[in-house]
Amino acid sequence: MKSNNTTTIYMKRKRKAQSFLDYSALIALVVFALMAMSGYVMKSVNARFAHVWADLYHPINGVR
């Protein structure tokens, strides 16, 4: 009976460690994806600012 209890405790620890590794991998994947996308987001924001600036201050097509 005692060995069964020890096995149960070992299995619970093993599952906790596996869950920790799963969540750590998931968090690392999300962080990596956000870092990879940040360049594209900055390019998009800068392009939008350039477009708005051109609409407001362009001598021919801009707002008068």
Rg over CA atoms: 27 Å
Q: Into which percentage range does the β-strand content fall?
A: under 5%
Q: Which stretches are low in confidence, meaning pLDDT under 50 for 5 or more residues running?
A: none
Sheet with the most strands?
Answer: none
Number of strands: 0
Helix/strand order, N-terminal first: H
The proportion of residues forming helix, as a percent range, comes to: over 70%
Distance between the termini: 88 Å
**Annotation field: number of helices:** 1
- Describe the global form: rod-shaped
Class inferred from helices and paired strands: mainly alpha
Provide the residue-averaged pLDDT: 83
Task: Describe what this molecule looks like in 3D.
The protein has 64 residues and is mostly helical. The protein is built from 1 helix and no strands. It has one helix spanning 2-57. The longest helix is centred in the middle third of the chain and has 56 residues, at 2-57.
